[in-house]
Amino acid sequence: MFKVQHVHGFLDQSKRDDIGGDGEITSGGGGGGEGDGDADGDEEDEDGRFFALCVVGSDFCELERSTPTELSLPLNFSDIFNLKFPPVQIIFFYKLGESTTTFFRTVILPKVKHSLSITLFHYLPLAGHLSWPQNSEKPIIIYNTANDGVLLTVAESGEDFDYLYSDIRYASESNPYLAPLSVSDTKASILSFQITLFPNKGFSISTTFNHAVIDGRSLSLFMNSWACICRNLDENVKICPSSLPEVLYPSFDRTVIQGSEGLEMQYLNYWLGLKLPGSDASPRSLKPIPFPVPADVVRATFQFSREDIKKLAKGLKNNNKVKFGLTADCRPRLNPPLSRNYIGNCVTSCDVLVEAEHLLKENGVVYVAKRLNEMVKGLEDGVLEIAKEKVPFMDVEPGVRVILVAGSSRLGTYGADFGWGKPMNVEATTIDVGESFSMVESRDESGGVEIGLVLKKHEMQIFDSLFVHGLKSSFECHQSVTLN
Q: Where is this region: Disordered (predicted)?
């Protein structure tokens, strides 16, 4: 069934009184109640645009009476490593000329909502919340059928859809399309979504997920499962949850991670002992550490080849030091290995410090890649032992520039086809907070990579000029900066 709570509101970010600007729900939702998920209770504003908040629960039927109504799961070592990091936010843009308001309300939205409910049946813990009971040494994941569900925000926008996913633009322009996630000192939601209609252009689906519970591979598996169920859903039949293809079936088994008990407490004690200037939050608070977003930063997505990356290195000054940081998947490197479909965090950080002079050489990028590859290969000699040397915040020497890589080109992000085609673009908005870039596989080119960047306006103009006139001199490229 669906548990639906409708709240009147507006897509305009400045008028969304029920949702804080930082993505946290800061006040109560107002009227409504529970009802069937197919009931249209959406409110309309004076412009005829609708906006609603719906709490979507997992879909049960008579054949699934044995499904537990309550469950709990512990956090693993990698979950606790990410306990206080900000939620991850991603937007999937889908182009669909047939997306009239009527078609969206009668076809797209019902299928998306119903398939989400079915998907949550397979991913029950993600419909729950993170809690840290006073009698518990560590935070835990709790799911309760009567109280839990996933927040789905439904909205409509009159903005230029093509501009939002294809042009260089201010990073803040993505904010109205981000899914809010409820987080307090004592309770934190795990997952939320927002679907936004752009009439006659397409729609977007954004997700915000708690990084203390799942990683990028887990999210990709969930999105591909949801999309698979949606595109195979008979819109005229209310089906019971059916089996997912084996390649998409999730695993929540925490017993398969062996030998990490001391590591969990090591990371937890790190967070408990961390003192932030000006913060009076309880050490057991579940609120993430705030990372301010720099003002007036702009966003763009670029297609890169290996040759492009070599040319980029020439833009660095010879006296710079650069620390490259990325995350490596631990699933195949644990003993015994975990299933690729393990749901939860199972990553560790890798970083290398490189003198810029090495990057300036003809084989500079190859050198960095070799160093990173050696670091990742070293994980196979004992990933848990190496993880004991890690802390959530890396130490950085003065004058060292840190570049972090978010995401991976091996997650199958563009596989999230809900039945109306794969995404036109996937945007990781989380990189707004610092010097990092996102990486996903190319939508159209096998083996290609898409890089998302957020930079100051003048930096992006320089980068764009380098990319267009230098890196892409042999290709047709019409991207330009047109910011006022």
A: 13-43
Higher pLDDT: 181 or 452? It is 181
The string of pLDDT tens digits covering residues 354-364 is: 776 665 555 55
417 among known catalytic residues: yes
pLDDT digits (tens, 9 = 90+) for 11-61: 333 333 333 333 343 322 333 333 333 334 455 544 444 456 667 766 544
The residue range of the domain holding 447 is 297-471
Give the residue from 231, 153, 204 showing the smallest Cα distance to 423: 204
Catalytic residue among 12, 22, 45, 417: 417
Tell me the average pLDDT across 141-146: 86
Cα 205 → chain centroid: 11
CATH, residue 269: 3.30.559.10
The answer to whether residues 346 and 449 belong to one domain is yes
358 is catalytic: no
E strand or H helix at 366:
helix 364-378
- Alpha carbon 466 to chain centroid distance? 29
Residue from 211, 215, 308, 432 carrying the catalytic annotation: 211
What's the whole-model pTM score? 0.80
Helix pair angle (216-231, 109-122), 10° resolution: 130
